[in-house]
Amino acid sequence: MTECGSIARVGPRPALVASDAWGTLAVGADSNFHYGELLGGVAATWNAQEGMTAKSKYNLNLAADDGDIYVTDYTRQNLRGGWKTPKTQAQFNVGDFENTESLAIETNDAGGFSYFTIRPTDATSPYIRRIHIIGSHVASSYPVQLIVGGRFGETWGDPNNFNNPTLLVTGDDYNNATNAMYVYDRKTSRNAGSEVFTIKSADASGSTFYMLRILNNAGAGVFDVDSNGNVHADGAYTSPAADFAECVRTDKDYMPGTVLKIQDGEYVQTEAVGEPSVAGVVSLRPGVLLGRERVYDCSNVVMAPRPMFFGKLKCLTFAGLLKDVGPYVRVGKNRYFQVTDVQHPDSMTVVHLHEPTLVSKEDDIWLGVAKRKNVSKLAFVGVVPVRCSTLNGNIMGNGELLVSGPEGCAVLAPENPAPGTVIGKALGKLVSLDGGEALGIVDVHLSPQ
Predict the structure, then answer these.
(1) Most CB within 10 Å of its CB: which of 20, 59, 154, 227?
(2) Taking the model in full, what pTM does it have?
(3) Which residues contact 354 (CB under 8 A, 6 or more apart)?
């Protein structure tokens, strides 16, 4: 081994200086290994900022033949990270890897493809099991993003049926009570229509595929939502409510328990005993709700041109003067917003909305939406609390037939009620204590007939 260098004095301190650009600085060298330290401090630098700089015009190598490369603090007592046996492993560690309290970034190989793995260095410790990725605690307009991409296979989790996932989350097998994945929204006040968790596909082929799927331990699907919005489940749907209801257009808002009939294409409350057009009862809390709770009149809508701006907006800006904007606008398929103001600066139309919304280039915007109609949740089967009256007699809760009554109430059915007048069978009691008419709420098993 040839040493090309000499002792020189640089400023007030001695130093080893290589003889040329290809020289070697060896401290405590023998024929095979180098031993020793390179020390730097504020006094050794001309600008009092760098403790020591390792610099090369080409490559700069850190090598350890039979050991580790350590990164420590200035006391050389606290291990901050480094390379564990770089001669045999491609692994970089953050933290004290001698005590297994560190995070490892390493390369692996599966199926002939190399990929990177980020994991705690100790796979058995109950304390170093989690990798916590958080954003800044300081409010900022630049949110932290975690982007995880997948192209080749992975080995953590089930390698047989994940189809090269973009993001894979597996549970902690040390603690059987922990969540595999937990989504927590820290916002304490959200705008109507905003989203906490969204799944979106850019597929435009028209094929049907799974947007969301839950598998059991045998790999069989037990719950899924396909790209057409169809929901499939192997199990039962459970709800504390006990009725099926549908959103219907009514002439006004009605309180739960009101008996409704059909009149002139709308649903209105009953006004007489035994009306044959009785339809159902306004539900208090439906177990299953069909239709849209918010109904708008879109018979005279006009599609607007593309807005000039996209993103999270509280006003929509269009080129040109647009008329008949309407009290509401529709964004996309089913997002409705009240118009609070319309302005026309510089031959443009600016439509102000009552709350901000996300507008993308794919969203159609419709103008001229009429005021929201009155909507009630009409229960047509199941057990429902119903407003009842003892006008036709006491209700004893023995399955008595009930029919419509005045002011949207149900009353005891007469003998041999006419077809189409029966609402259901009474499950609860309503008894008059003084012989007069009593009003109250009774649970009724709906079975219109």
Answers:
(1) 154
(2) 0.55
(3) 337, 338, 339, 340
